[in-house]
Amino acid sequence: MEFLEFIPQQEKDIDLERIHRLRKTMQNRRASICSERARLITESFRRTEGEDYILRKAEAFAYILEHMTIYIQKDSLIFGNQASCNFAAPIFPEYSIDWVINELDEFDQRSGDIFQISAQVKQELREIAVYWHGNTHEDEVMKNTTTYILQAEKQGILHRGGISMSGDGHIVPDYALILQKGLRWFLNEAKMKLSDKSLTKENKSFYKAVIISLEGALHFIKRYSALAYKLAEIETDITRKQELLVIGKMCEALMEQPVQNFYEGCETCYLVHILQMIESNGHSFCYGRFDQYMYNLYERDIQKGTITKEKALEIITHLFLMNSSNNKVRPYGHTKFSQGYPLYSNLMISGYKPDCSDGTNELSYLCIEAMNLTKMAEPNFSMRYNKNTPRSLVRLAAKLIRTGCGMPSMFNDEVIIKSLENLGIPSKDARDYCAIGCVEIGIPGKYGHRSTGMTYVNWGKLLEIMLYNGVDPDSGIQMLQINGKQGSSINYNNYDEVWKAWEKVLRFYSDIAVDCDRICDNSLAFYDSDPFASCFVDNCMKLGKTLKNGGAKYDVISQSNIGPIIVGNALAVIKKLIFDDKKITWNQLLSAIKENWTGKEAMHIHKLVKQVPKFGNDEDYVDNIVKDVFNSYLKLLPDYKTNRYGKGPEISCYTMSTSNITSYVPNGFAVGATPDGRTARSPLNEGCSPTQGTDKNGPTAVINSVAKLPNEKIAAGQLLNMRFSPGTLAGNENLDKFIDFLEASVLKGIFHNQFNVVGTKTLLDAKKYPENYTDLIVRVAGYCAQFVSLMPETQDAIIARTENNW
Amino acid sequence: MEEKGIISTIQRYSIKDGPGIRSTVFMSGCNLRCKWCSNPELLDMSPKYMYFENRCVRCGSCVDTAVNNSISLSSNGCIIDREMCTNLDECMEICPKEAFEKIGMEITADDLVKKLLRDKVFYSQSGGGTTFSGGEPALQARFVIEAAQKLRQYGINTALDTAGAVKWDILSDIINHMDVVLYDIKTYKTKNHIAFTGIDNGIILENAQRIAKLKKDMIVRLIIVPGFNDSWEDLISRVNFVKTLGSSVKRIDFIQYHTLGVGKYKRLGMKYQITKIKKLDTKLIEKVMKIAADTGIKVTLQ
Ligand code: SF4
Ligand code: SF4
Question: Among A45, B123, B187, B228, which is 20 to 30 Å from A401 by CA?
């Protein structure tokens, strides 16, 4: 079964064998480091000393595009390359260089996210490093970093991740406008703007930089034309030769004019995508609402008879696969926070149109089929849905989810649109939102840079230091004294005092985190000058400013807060056992925690702790406390301003997000046992999902709990991850019930949901480590049950059945 | 009167106990004793204690607590003399590792309904609701009726999962408050029925016909246990009987025997009665299913 539902009529128009080959190529690709970009930018920068930084960046961009190696991927209809070979990561020395040099000999020795690196590349990087050392974004950030921030980092509370040493990314260009106008149009606009006498210096440099960048990009595209013709000459396969000739012809005028057809449209999206990733090394450059802005072209071609559905599907499939050819290298320390070479290139389908009608179209279906054929980690595939989404589309999505690839990730229009309107964004724009990266939300072509994941704040650690009057038990550092006294001892007389302490700790460190955002943002405004990416986002062209300088129409950012559920569960334990029921004392709890729940007394307390309701079971007692925890942070936000407040954006504010990629694992390493019963150094909870192993009442209870949170205020993304066994989705009847479950979740008011449909391997692991899998629901005979609650024999039986294509 | 019932658990997101997404209420007490029963904890209404050997860390606390020296420690965990141990509650309390679990709790119909209502959106979206199962839910008729009445006031679909061996006036009373009846027919010949389940099935077959006459929607469940009721005659006579019930029957579920309940026996200190099990003749089942589907009834294999 190649397709989920699609039945090809024109089989010759979709070459499945070739798709398999291309997919194999991508699956077997090996990451490497490419020094080409680093060398070229250095050459260019050496020649532009003294000029405006943004112009230097633009000139370097054009210079790189002119001189970098280009190739056309074998077997692919979609072309364009970010580095000199497949899956090579370019180096961006302008953002940071020291770690690159320090880790040169370790790239190919890592235990995960390994990069091959040749001696020559190492040599080249060492040579250019001298030029950059001390003059990078990272250096600028370090220069301005306060001791407060450094201390909080030492405590394991703050983590700056990408923003302190790389570009910001998180951009969804206005693809609709790009397709409709072509790059030349943007270039001409910039020229026209330049003739305005009243421009500031900043404006002038911006428009000039846009012109340089776009000329560079247009020239780059033409290089592919020449290359394609050359390749066509020596190509022996007739079909491929023909394809190369088409590419050659296409690239003669691509983006000099509006896009001519669907194929050109897809190609343009891909080129703009990689061009952004050559300009800057941020991640999460996203496709936005692909099925929406591509539909006109598709419909026109179909009506004219110049394309078939099958061909369109083939092109989309190639586009998806080519996303696996791009790469980004991060310092090893950051890699733990984002494992698996992620680029977070989100591509979204369906959802309301700005006029509130449902936007589902044929391409929405084709994209799901394409994802089914490709099933690679990129693009990160997501779907919007709402009360009016056709059930047939939800069904197709459910079928893809059922294959176990974890996609699409499902976003609830009904809640998300409200969350954006709550920020003051007009409904028309709010309805046009898309996912950026993982679960962050933004308005395509109107948002500037990352809506989430500025500074990462470890709430698990906040909770821990709250137990010790502000002292971090690991580093011994005390930055605040909850009771006004030095040292770790503190006595709480009632829950109210505990709650106040939480608020105090949260405020203290959130303030520092905002400071940290500001410092990174300040530096990025300079070093991440990105005229190419900026010119496709409103209102940069109108205002003559880059995104980071206030060019974006909406400037909504957030930090990433990790572990809110741990905090809520812990507070519930403290409230119930110590103050409500008076079953244990504060000191008893503390010593049990110190012993990591081992020893007779501690074990007994652990049992009591485990019996206190946990979030994710539809228990109001604890769910309300978790809600309080969310609200305690939301309350702080109106006081926080971004650097761009009052400097251009129509809306500029902070919001909240629980999107935390894999950081909940390393953040957990930094935290000892916590009052919720979590053992020392184990992961924190993921997003707003229940802590691993504590939701025991099935998926509806999880939804009910999550629905109680202030989801309509978490406008930068509220992540929920659930796990189902393949058996619960097997067959039409179960699938139908799963679809009902999805639709009911929309009505319930959750923000987002994604699913792991696990197979035998995981089940075996679950059997071995049951404590990690209590949320795993499996079908047992006539009913569903929690997998780990079953006897080993039963588990074996179910494992065997799953293998039988149940 | 505020009725109280004894239940073990509420299983949410139940997808095999009737239409849509359901919550299944497992009720204690049963008047049959099927040899293959996979719910031994539900056979009678008294509370049951399960002992999870894999959670036990052999700390010995329960040994000291148990009266009459009724618990001793071995390398395989605790050996519990269930007759002598009259204070398992205390043992459970003292155990640091939750190695004991108590099954069976009293709940009022009101509280039960409140819990069930929490998934109302899921029920209404999917055409699902609540299924009373067990054990034999019909043994707690007044409780079930009160809960079902309340649920229906909220527009929630109700189902009864019964073996049918209950006096008609009681059963019919319950069924009046149900939208669907899941009805088990375990074997056809009376002699076998007595041997396998401990009771005569005359009343079961009669009640099935009466329910059908009421034109109530039925899902008939035919369990197949190799070596017991998997012969061609048994299966075909059950299928033929179901056909006589007419259009009331919306679906026939063939349910394959499974050993999923075996572990529970060990945890409860009970003996599982089936020691050896033959393999199921899948060809035979397919044939029977085909015949069952003849009349256009939906047939499933679980
Ligand atoms: S008290 Fe619990 S852990 Fe200790 S021996 Fe008894 S059952 Fe095992
Ligand atoms: S009717 Fe059901 S609960 Fe009762 S003994 Fe038989 S299988 Fe067990």
Answer: B123
Calculate the alpha carbon distances from A373 to A313, A403, A485, B110 in Å.
10, 11, 62, 51
Tell me which of B95, B100, B101 to substitute to probe ligand 1's pocket, judged by most ligand atoms within 8 Å of the beta carbon: B95
Ligand 1, residues at Cβ distance < 6 Å: B 56-62, 78, 94-95, 97, 99
Cα–Cα distance measured from residue A316 to residue A319, given in angstroms and rounded to the nearest whole number: 5
- Cite the residue boundaries of each domain of chain B with CATH code 3.30.70.20: 48-103
Q: Which of A446, A450, A451, A444 is nearest to A293 (CA)?
A: A444
pTM value? 0.93
DSSP annotation of B186 reads -
Q: Which residues of A touch B126 (CB under 8 A)?
A: 736-737, 740-741, 744
Residue B107: partners with Cβ closer than 8 Å, 6 or more residues away: B4, B5, B6, B7
Is a pLDDT exceeding 90 seen at residue B113? yes
Which residues of chain A lie closer than 8 angstroms to B121, CB-CB? Answer: 744, 747-748
Instruction: Compare all CA atoms of chain B with the CA of A769 and give the residue at the minimum distance.
Output: B54
Q: Is the backbone peptide bond immediately before A539 cis, with ω within 30 degrees of 0?
A: yes
What pLDDT score does A404 carry?
78
The CB of B37 under 6 Å from ligand 2? The reply is: yes
pLDDT in tens, B43-91: 999 999 999 999 999 999 999 999 999 999 998 899 999 999 999 999 9
Over the stretch A563-584, which tens digit does the pLDDT of each residue have? 999 999 999 999 999 999 999 9
CATH number among 3.30.70.2190, 3.90.1150.10, 3.40.50.300, 3.30.70.20, domain B48-103 = 3.30.70.20
C-alpha B229 chain-centroid distance? 18
Model pLDDT for residues A537-566, shown as the tens digit of each residue: 999 999 999 999 999 999 999 998 999 999
Q: A741–B126: do the CB atoms touch at under 8 Å?
A: yes
What does the alpha-carbon distance between residue A793 and residue A787 come to, in Å, rounded to a whole number? 11
Q: What is the CA radius of gyration of chain B?
A: 21
**What whole-number distance in Å separates Cα of residue A636 and Cα of residue A656?**
10
**Is the ipTM beyond the 0.90 threshold?**
yes
Q: Write down the CATH number for the domain with range B4-44+104-301.
A: 3.20.20.70
| C-alpha of residue B301 to centroid of ligand 2, in Å | 19
Tokens 């056979």 correspond to B43
Within A468-599, residue ranges assigned H as helices are: 495-527, 531-534, 540-543, 564-573, 586-594
Task: Specify the domain boundaries for CATH 3.20.20.70 within chain B.
Answer: 4-44+104-301
- The SS3 assignment for A756 reads strand
B204 lines ligand 2 (CB under 6 A): no
Best of B51, B58, B102 for a ligand 1 pocket test (most atoms within 8 Å of beta carbon): B58
